[in-house]
Amino acid sequence: MSSEEVPTHVEKNEINASFVRHTPSRHPSADSGNVSNRLTDLPRDLEPIRHHWEQRGRKYGLSPSASWVDETMLQREGLVLARYINDDDTVLDAGCANGYTTLQLARMRQIRITGIDYAPSMIEHANVNLSRAGHIKGAAFFKVNNFLKLDFADNTFDKVYTKRTLINLGSPIYQKAAILEAHRVLKPGGLFMVSEVTVQSSEKLNRLRQKLGLEAMSPLWHNCYLDEPEILRFIEPYFEVKRIKHFSSTYYVLTWAIYPFFVRNGQRNYRGFLHRVSALLPQIGDYGLQKLYVLKKRSR
Ligand SMILES: C[S@@+](CC[C@H](N)C(=O)[O-])C[C@H]1O[C@@H](n2cnc3c(N)ncnc32)[C@H](O)[C@@H]1O
């Protein structure tokens, strides 16, 4: 599919905006030394969410908390992703915030990795984090870009990943449009790695919490959790599901069910002993809010 088309599964009139037409760059390395900060247009109904992230990027600056306060889980996600990324891969981090995971992976693997985010403040700080990152094995680039209209040619990347960016796209329509963009820029046989929260995983954790007399947790105003069966049905013609990794199950049971059951209104320390140990333990069961879906682009 060309980058100029609206995905066929999504009715054109359902997308409440016009996208800016643009010529995709040939390759991530084509942007090296000349990182584009050009903003691409966004559907108007997503502007409040972008505003939220732009503000958050300014507030937290270089800190990992710009994307998420749970640094322990951020780090674990990066380690799990690294298992599917090899030296010499070209990689896209779709919705990279200020580059925490992008740079974590760039330190671990000899890759060419590009992080994109639609919040300029995030990219500004990602570039500062890059300048202070120390030894990077390959090369890392950051640019302002919209996941719904990626500024890259078809079949560019070996690996694309998204961590909690799809849930920030407001509706299943935009989530599906982004999935098709990831598909477009991936090489045939390339992997799309999706670490996201689903309606079903949230309900499952909440059922456990409620059994323990704890309140259900609700999504933040800017989050739209993925509907797992609907998304799996949607991706079927495009991707083969290689693996679903329950990499956060024990972690959530211990930190979001057992701990609050014993310590009501306890102070949460995401970098503290409980969180760090819970992330290191074998992850048993299917209670994690997040899972990693490893999807392989079908060769047509
Ligand atoms: C929850 S944060 C996760 C950041 C990062 N993936 C991580 O795991 O640390 C979501 C990020 O996605 C970005 N984002 C949301 N919608 C986007 C879009 N349409 N295009 C590009 N970035 C987007 C936000 O600006 C924010 O930085």
From TrEMBL:
Keywords from the UniProt entry: Methyltransferase, Transferase
Chain intervals with Basic and acidic residues compositional bias: 1-14
GO biological process, one term: methylation
Region (Disordered): 1-40
Location of the Methyltransferase domain: 86-200
GO molecular function: methyltransferase activity
Designated name of the protein: Class I SAM-dependent methyltransferase
Source organism of the structure: Candidatus Chlorohelix allophototropha
